[in-house]
Specification:
single chain; 15 helices; mainly alpha; about 80% helix
Length: about 350
């Protein structure tokens, strides 16, 4: 009887894959404390493999050599950032905060009725206690920077070992597909391929979108002679990794700094810039980089971001859209296509 039920279960592909998917979700839930290292390792591995494939189209170099050059360059850039640019960025960030603080301490602003109302509201509300609580949260985040650095380092190491011997990794992994429990690993491979097709494409496209947004925004901010450009560029890049909402969120600090530098006129310039960048992302960059495969209505995008932030915290803002698109593909609602990571077979 049990043997018959087991055979029926194995023959029912839809039920079998549903059970496997639930099992994968359960395992990931149990390993949620390692989610940062898992996601970072996947992102690094995917991007490096895509870069290797791109380079090998033009230059027939051994894949391990390209990988070693990429990681050596990455380590050098990280070392330069920590030893040379990080202190400068930290100093500029402090100056930026001081300039905004000094602006609000300027007695001239009392002549402005808007600032009088804001000052009265702050005095009569509980906003200062909330601000103190926010500072405490910020200090806790600063205390976790060291742990995040360790996570980043281990993710970099793991992705290096995967990519430097990717041919052997893919070859060895195929053995599971012909093992005694081949059905299980075939179903896992089915979901893994779907995951790469959705998550990988979205992350890769979002990186290009973030770089484009950052370059364009930094150029315009440089023309406006805004202070602390490196700090602002990093902020814009990190926020641009959040689909759609990131550009809008960056409007608040940019408008604040713009007002402290050039008044209402600069705020208007910033708002116009944000509208142009948002339109460029929505109507040019998203269709171009996503190839219309993952384009979602803005309503769905914001709902997914809100739910993702609640479920996964900061990571939810970055991975919420890819995960949602993955389930759309699994459910057959919207397929992302057959894009997959190219395996470097020849060395």
């Amino acid at each position: 009887m049990l043997v018959s039920l087991w055979k029926k279960f194995l023959a029912n592909v839809e039920l079998r894959r549903f059970v496997v998917l639930i099992g994968i979700i359960l395992v990931l839930f149990l390993a949620r404390h390692m989610m940062s290292i898992i996601l970072l390792t996947f992102i690094f591995t995917f991007l490096v493999l895509q870069l290797v494939s791109f380079v090998r189209r033009w230059v027939k170099l051994p894949a391990p050599l390209i990988v070693m050059v990429v990681y050596a360059l990455t380590i050098y850039l990280l070392y330069s950032a920590v030893t040379k640019y990080l202190p400068v960025i930290a100093d500029q960030t402090v100056k930026m905060v001081e300039s905004v603080y000094q602006f609000y301490q300027n007695p001239d602003y009392e002549t402005n009725e808007v600032f009088k109302w804001l000052n009265s509201y702050i005095k009569t509300s509980d906003i200062m206690n909330q601000f103190k609580g926010g500072v405490a949260v910020a200090l806790n985040y600063l205390g976790s920077i060291g742990m995040m650095g360790v996570t980043f380092f281990f993710s970099l190491i793991l992705s290096f070992f995967f990519t430097v011997e990717s041919h052997h990794m893919f070859q060895f992994s195929r053995l599971f597909l012909t093992s005694r429990y081949a059905w299980l690993f075939q179903d896992i491979y089915f979901f893994a391929k779907k995951f790469v097709n959705t998550f990988g494409v979205v992350i890769e496209a979002q990186v290009f979108i973030a770089i484009t947004n950052t370059v364009l925004t930094t150029i315009f901010l440089g023309i406006m002679k805004m202070p602390q450009l490196p700090t602002l560029a990093i902020m814009v890049f990190l926020l641009s990794m959040i689909p759609v909402a990131g550009v809008i969120i960056s409007c608040v600090p940019l408008a604040l700094i713009g007002y402290s530098v050039g008044g209402i006129q600069y705020v208007a310039y910033i708002l116009i810039l944000i509208v142009i960048i948002h339109a460029l992302e929505a109507y040019v960059l998203n269709p171009q980089f996503m190839a219309s495969r993952t384009k979602l209505p803005i309503f769905y995008t914001f709902v997914v971001l809100l739910v993702g932030e609640r479920l996964f915290g900061t990571w939810g803002l970055i991975v919420g859209i890819p995960v949602f698109t993955f389930f759309l593909d699994i459910l057959g609602v919207k397929s992302i296509g057959n894009r997959k990571v190219k395996q470097t077979e020849k060395h």
